Amino acid sequence: xxxxxxxxxxxxxVDTKVKGKPEVAFVLIxxxxxxxxxxxxxxxxxxxxxRKIAQNFDWAKFSPVMLSRRENGQFAIIDGQHRTxxxxxxxxxEVPAMVSDLSIxxxxxxFSWINGAVTALTGNQIFKAALAAFEPWAVQCDSVVERxxxxxxxxxxxxxxxxxxxxxxxxxxxRMVESGHSTELYVVLSGxxxxxxxxxxxxxxxxxxxxxxxxxxxAGVKQPSAVTAFLDAHDLDEVARLVARxxxxxxxxxxxxxxxxxxxxxxxxxxxxxxxxx
Length: 278
Fold this sequence. Notes:
Layout: E1 23-28, E2 32-33, H1 44-55, E3 65-69, E4 75-79, H2 81-89, E5 94-100, H3 104-117, H4 123-132, H5 136-147, E6 151-152, E7 166-167, H6 170-178, H7 182-193, H8 206-219, H9 224-233, H10 236-247, H11 257-277
Parallel strand pairs: 2-4, 3-5, 6-7
Antiparallel strand pairs: 1-5, 3-4
């Protein structure tokens, strides 16, 4: 059996300012709180994970949770919410923890980094934590969507519970904003809100945004009213049905529906604008 030590002799040193060491201690579970400004909610998958950990509880498999000390003597949990719930479910009253003294923003940034890099978080959960930490990309995305009279959601929801104006496609919105197309995103969302499809939640998400924003960029549309007029004059569901048939043609083998649909919407928007200009 090979045994080795930690050896960094062949690595380039990293010049990083490291803050003071956290305190290592057992902390009473009753004193631990969950700050929902950045922490994920305990959804169905989370509850299953808690029960699985509890059913297989073993201190050898329990790594210390990460906490931030609050002024009122409580401790905000940064990492280890599921493990702590599982411990409580097993009747355990305290858990091992690394305790740091952090601001709310530092807590949220730590949560976003730890879970975004290691745990499979949803885009909505990452956005929630990043927004609480005032990360520029999250603040900008939130601002653009809110300015259009819509809401960028920090959680996902069942289709039956989604409402018009709620935007759940965080990753899509982030890509658009970070690629410099905040204005076009605003134009599309604002145009949808005044159109005949304003109550269709699909238009505020992948179905509408993934096709309309690229079309608006290509066509150079600057006013929401142009998007409204286009949507009032065209049935994108019918366009989608036609594209599905076109996709089956031999010459389109291997082409994605998403790409073909976006291209079709772009062509239609250009034709619409040309007709309106006459």
